[in-house]
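Much of the work behind modern protein science is quiet bookkeeping, done one molecule at a time. Below is the pair of lines this work produces for a single protein:

***
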Amino acid sequence: MRKKLLRPGADELSYEIRGIVRKAEAIMKHGVKIQWENIGDPIMKHAEIPEWIKQIICELSFQNDTYSYCHSKGELATRKFLANRNNSLGGVQINEDDILFYNGLGDAIGKIYQYLLPSARIIGPSPAYSTHSSAEAAHANDSPITYNLDPSNHWYPDMEDLYLKVKYNPNIVGILIINPDNPTGMVYPIEILKKFVQIAREFDLFLISDEIYINVTYNGAKAWSLAQYIEDVPGIVMKGLSKEVPWPGSRCGWTKFLNRKKDPEFDKLCTTLENAKMIEVSSTKLPQLAVPRILSDPRYFDHIRNNNDKIGQRAKIIADILKKVKGIYFNETFGAFYNTIVFKENALKPGQKLHIENPEVRALVEEWVAGDQIAPDKRFVYYLLGAKGICVVPISSFCSDLHGFRITLLENDAEILVDTFSRLADALNEYLGN
C-alpha cells in the first residue's frame, strides 16, 4: 500500500484463548481427540439451561415488539430494573440513565478504550484478560500497563507495585479490577478493594470493575460489587449475561456509571459513550427484554446456587489432583471458572518434552517449539496438546512475565474431569522430572 495501514499497538490485538484452537485443530487431523480447556463457554461443556429460562426466551420471541429497535441506551424497563438491583446493595445509588447496553462486554471494553486519549492509560492486573489488555494497548499505541497479581499469595494484587506505578506514571487515569478474576479465579477481599479506592482518590483516578463473574462464587467466597465500596470515587461497572445464566451467545452486556457527576472529565467520558451508542442506534433487544424476567424469577437464585456448587465441587477435585505436583504454584479458586497454574522459578528448562506416540503429531509439535523465540510455557502447552490432547492457554499470552497455563472448571462429566486432570498431573510430573 502507498502508506502503512496499521498504527503502533495494533499488534497487541491477540486472543490466544481462541488462537490455540488452530493448533488443536491441526492435531485433530491426525486422529487426536481434544479435551477443550481453553475457553470459558459453559454451553460447550454441556451446561443445562433450565426449561423455565428457555420458556421466557421463547415467549419473548413471539412478541412483535421484540423485533424492533430499543432505546439507544438500552430497554428502559430493563435499565430501571438493573438500577434498582444496584441500589438494593446499599452503596452508590444510580438511575436508569446511568446504565448503557452493549453487544457483549467485548463491545463495551472496546468502546471505553477507543474514546480515551491515547496518552490516558488504564492500568490493569497481570496476568490480564486478553480483551482488556489488547484493547488498552491498541488505544494507547503501546504495550499494556499492568500491576502484578502474586501467585505465592493467593493471586492477590501487589498493592505496593500498583501504588508506585500509579504514583510515577501521570498518564494513568484509571485502574481496572476484574472481580472475580479471569484468568486466576481469585476473589478480592474487601480490605484490598478498599485500597484500590484509596489509591484512586489520592491520585484522582476512576475505577473500572469487570464483574461478569460477580455471581459466580463458591466454597464460601463472597464477591463485592464496586458500588458497595467505591464511596465518592467515579467508576464504571461492567456486567452481562454470558457467564452466570449462562448465555454467552446472547452478546448482552451493560455498564453502570457510578458517581459520574463527581468529576467533569469523567462525566464527559460517560456522555461520549452514550453518544457513540446513539450512532449505532441500539444493541440487541431480545436478551435485554429477558434480563428482568430471568433475574427476578424466584427460581433464579437456586439456579445460580446449584451451578456454583457444581463449580465449587470441581474446584476441589482439581485441587486434590494438582496441588500434589511439585514445581508449580497452585491456588485453589473461589470465583469465576478458571484456574491459573504457574511454574516455579527454574522449573522450566531447555529441552524438556513429553513423549508423543504419534510420529506425525510429534513432528508437528517439534516444528512449533523449534527456535529460541517460543515462550517456555507455550512449549509445555504445545507438548501437552500433542501428548495428552488437552488444550489449555499459556499464561504468557495473558500479558504476563510468568510462565504457566489457564484451565477451566467447566467439565460436567465427573469421570472425564478426573481423567483429564489426572493426565495433566502426569504430564506435569513427566515434563518437570518429578
